[in-house]
Amino acid sequence: MTQLSRRAFVTAALASLLVSCAGHGTDGTPAAHPTGTHPPARSAVAPANAPHPLARSVPTRLRIPGIGVDTPVMGLGLARDGSVQVPPITAHDQAGWYRNSPTPGQTGPSVILGHVTVGAYGDGVFRHLDRLRRGDGITVRLENGTSAGFTVTSVRTVAKAHFPTQQVYGDVGRPELRLITCGGPRTGDGYLDNVIVFAALSTASR
Fold first, then answer.
1. pLDDT at site 48
2. CA atoms of 54 and 201, how far apart (whole Å)
3. Who contacts 191 (Cβ-Cβ below 8 Å, separation ≥6)?
4. DSSP one-letter code for 168
5. Beta strands in 65-189 (DSSP E)
6. How far separated are the first and last CA of the chain, in Å rounded?
7. Who wins on pLDDT, 6 or 170?
8. Residue 148 pairs with which residues in a beta bridge?
9. Spatial separation of the C-alpha atoms in residues 111 and 167, rounded to whole Å
């Protein structure tokens, strides 16, 4: 990641309220309503059989067989208030990659956001994200023709008021993936929690 994009990435992470299906945060307490397994080690060394980090290439498609997700991936930037954008509310909902984060397969945390619901259109692309479990597979197709395979290491449900910014956006020494959506109890204007999937690069192929 370039110095400029890293600065934008960190600024958004620390300052932002991710409206709708992302989170806001402080470097606060761990999950208010944890699910699944413990969070991954933040500076874990990649196993000997893990692929080398990949060259930067924009993600174009996301597949998560365990929950029936097969979606195009759009690029997301920053909103006027400095928060990370979320995908638009449309009938043909799709996931969005935050383009100031590493691309999937690069060293660092690549961030992909999606909705749990899309208003009158019904279920969002990440409706069943909280059903993922450690060991489940995720595949991201990149613009250069490479497929980056990730293995889920942890799934957490956290209160938005205590979003673990550092654990989601902080530097890591290997290629990792973060999938984020809303979850938990529903209120009049959204959801109280976020669901966050942590995953690590496990395969790469063309």
1. 55
2. 10
3. 116, 160, 182, 183, 184, 185
4. H
5. 69-76, 95-98, 108-113, 137-142, 147-159, 175-187
6. 23
7. 170
8. 140, 204
9. 12
Distance, CA of 85 to chain centre: 13
- The per-residue pLDDT of the chain, averaged, comes to 82
**47 pLDDT band (50/70/90 cuts)?**
low
Q: 15-20: long-range contacts at Cβ-Cβ below 8 A with a sequence spacing of 24 or more?
A: 15/82, 15/83, 16/78, 16/81, 16/82, 16/83, 16/84, 17/81, 17/83, 18/83, 18/84, 18/86, 18/113, 18/180, 19/79, 19/83, 19/86, 20/86, 20/115, 20/182, 20/190
Q: How many residues does the chain have?
A: 206
SS3 91: coil
| 191-198 mean pLDDT | 96
Specify the fold of 3-205.
Sortase; Chain: A; (2.40.260)
DSSP H/E element including 172: none
pTM, two decimals, is: 0.81
110, 97 contact by CB (below 8 A): yes
Residue 135 · residue 151 · CB < 8 Å: yes
* Buried b or exposed e, range 99-125, using 16+ CB within 10 angstroms: bbbbbbbbbbbbbbbbbbbbeeeeebb
Can you tell me the distance from the alpha carbon of 48 to that of 138, in angstroms, rounded to the nearest whole number? 20
What are the helix and strand counts (H, E) for the chain? 2, 8
Q: Give the pLDDT confidence of 127-173 residue by residue, as tens digits.
A: 999 999 999 999 999 999 999 999 999 999 999 999 999 999 999 99
What is the C-alpha separation between 53 and 72, in angstroms, rounded? 23
